Structure formats: C-alpha cells, structure tokens
Amino acid sequence: MKSPSFDLASGHAVRDNVSSLDFLDLLVHRPASEAVLDVHASMVVVTSGLDGGSGSWQQIHVRVQPSTVDAIGRLDDYMMFPHGGGASSIDIARNRITSSAYSIVTTFQLSSPMVPNIAYRFTLSATGASPVVLSGSVERLDGSAWTLLGSALTQDLDSSAVTTPGVVGFSASNADPTGAYTYDDYVATGN
C-alpha cells in the first residue's frame, strides 16, 4: 500500500482508514517486479451503501507504472470506477497526473444500477502499445451465476497512453467512508 487504507477482515479487503488522501495514494498494489504489459484483472465488490451523497468510488487499476507505484501524489495507470461515484455507468480512465484529475477514455452504461449488499465483478484489461486496447466489464452475481450488466472495448489513441508494463491494484476515493464496500477475489493474469 502507498499509505494505510485497507485491511483484511473476514477474508475481504475492507476500507479501514478515512483521510484526506485520494485514490492516488490509497492504492493497494502488487510489487513492481510483477510488471507486465498485457494484463487482465478482476475483483468482486460488495457495497454497503453509498456514502453521504458523494457516491461509491470502488476502483480497479492496471498498468500502474513502477515509477509512480509508491510516489505520493502521483499515479500513472488505467483505472475503472463508477462514473461520478454513481451506480448506473462506469468510466475507464487514464492517469498521468500529480493531482486528483484523470482523463476518461470511455464510459459505458449498466443495464441495471448497482445496489447495496450485492456482489459485482469488475474486470479491466489492457493490451498492446500502439494502440493500447482497453476492455472493461461489470457483472452482478445472481445466485451462482454472473450476469453481464455492461462492458466496453476501446482504444487509447492519445499521445499520453500508458504503453509500458505496469502492475495491478485497487484503490478508493477519499469520499468513501470506512466500510463503504469490501473487495474480494482479486485475480490478475498477464505477460
């Protein structure tokens, strides 16, 4: 972790520290020695509800650049999260920043809004370098089966595309209170 933000409780990663730090510094990540170019990552998220009106900002990250993985106030990577902290659409964004700004590469709609106390699987992939191909999806656990709620496949053709190997991780916004959600079953593969 860049800074204390999550802990393990009952086998889940749980937000345990509310601070003024934002997603740039609340990142939990794999070691830099595991950096890969082509990567596919997924995690299961359960929200306990939206915080006091500013939303729920669960985030999955890929291609986190080793030079920024532990640099406070800096993060270069791709991430996926609920648009505006809401429940009906998802953003895939590029970070090349030293502040809490980011560039949205694409947004996709969910066929059904996310609701509290239901398991959702977030998946984000990045492949290639010229261009970078990004794929994201959100699924809902219905009984024992996953139902696709929405997905996107796009290319990052911007000159600031993240074109070098990176690591994977997850994060949160400083708007999220302790216990707003849990992460589980984080899986990443790549080469």
Which key terms come to mind for this protein?
single chain; 191 residues; Jelly Rolls; six-stranded antiparallel β-sheet
Instruction: State which percent range the strand residues make up.
Output: over 45%
Count structural domains: 1
At the first level of CATH, the class is Mainly Beta
| CATH second-level architecture | Sandwich
Average pLDDT level: 86
> CATH topology, anyone?
Jelly Rolls
Q: How much helical structure, as a percent, in the residues? A: under 10%
Poorly predicted runs: none
Structure description:
The structure is a single chain. With 191 residues, this protein is mostly beta strands. It has a single domain (6-190), classed as Jelly Rolls. The chain has no helices and 13 strands. It has strands at residues 6-9, 12-15, 28-29, 39-47, 59-64, 75-82, 89-97, 103-109, 119-127, 132-142, 145-156, 167-171, 181-190. The strands form two sheets. It has a seven-stranded antiparallel beta sheet, with no helix packed on it.
Topology:
Elements: E1 6-9, E2 12-15, E3 28-29, E4 39-47, E5 59-64, E6 75-82, E7 89-97, E8 103-109, E9 119-127, E10 132-142, E11 145-156, E12 167-171, E13 181-190
Antiparallel strand pairs: 1-2, 2-13, 3-12, 4-9, 4-13, 5-6, 5-12, 6-7, 7-8, 9-10, 10-11
